[in-house]
Amino acid sequence: MKQSPRVLGRPRNDINAKPTKAVVLETATKLFIKEGYKNISMDDVAKACNVTKATIYYYYPTKGELYTSALIEMMNKIRQAIIRILEQSKPFKERLEELVEVHLSATVAIDMKNFMREATMNLSESQILKVHASENELYKTIQQAMQIEMEKGTIHQGNAEFFAHTFLSLMTVGYFKDGEGNRLFQTEAIAAKEIVDFFWKSVGK
Fold it and tell me: What is the DSSP secondary-structure string of 127-175?
C-alpha cells in the first residue's frame, strides 16, 4: 500500500515512546535552565533531542514560542504541585511549610527572576501575556487557599490577594545567597519553617 507523504519536518510516530513534542519541550526547558535563553539555539535543542531542526520547527516555529511554552509548562507543574499540597487535610500552617519546602527543593536550580527577565527582553508582547496569564493562575491558587482559610477562621480576615503575593514574595527569600554564594538557610526545611513562622505572625490566629 502506498504511504501518504509526510509533512516536511513532521516526526514519525512511535506509539511506545514519549511524544516527540513532550521530549522537545522537556529537553529545551532543561537547556534553558542550565544555559539561559541567549545561549541555547534551536540547533542545540535538536541535537540534544536527537532529531532534525525541522522537527523542532514543526512543533515550535520560533525559539520564542519554545521558550514561552517552557515557562508556561514550568509554572503549570509548580501550580499542580501546590494544589496537591494545599488539598491535604493537615493544618494550614503545616501545608504552607510543606509547600515552601517542596517548592524550594524542586526549583533550587531555577532562577525564575532571570527566566522572567529574559522573557521580557526576548519574547513578543503576545507571548509575554501568555506567560503572565500562567503566572497569575499560580498566584490565584494561593489566593483561593487564603480566602478559604479566612472563611474557616484559620487566619485573620484581610485581602487574600495581598496575603498570597506576600507569602510568595517571602518564599523567594529561601533562594537568597550572599556575595560568596552562601545560603541564608542551611536547608529547605529550615527555610520553610522560618518563612512560614514569620508569615504566620501576621496572618495566623
Answer: HHHHHHHHHHHHHHHHHHHHHHHHHHTSB-SS-HHHHHHHHHHHHGGGG
Q: Supply the mean pLDDT for the chain.
A: 87
For 81-127, what is each residue's pLDDT tens digit? 999 999 999 999 999 999 999 888 877 656 667 777 888 888 999 99
Return the pLDDT at 51: 92
- Domains, the chain, in order of start with CATH, read 1-61 (1.10.10.60), 63-203 (1.10.357.10)
Over the stretch 178-190, which tens digit does the pLDDT of each residue have? 888 788 898 999 9
DSSP conformation class of 39: T
Reported as half-sphere exposure (CB side, CA atoms, 13 A), residue 87 has a value of 7
| DSSP 3-state of 89 | coil
Rounded Cα distance between 185 and 173, Å, is 9
pTM of this structure = 0.79
Q: Which residues contact 194 (CB under 8 A, 6 or more apart)?
A: 185
- Kindly list the distances between the CA atom of residue 48 and the CA atoms of 26, 39, 65, in Å, as whole numbers in the listed order: 11, 14, 18
Half-sphere CA count of 175, side-chain side, radius 13 A? 17
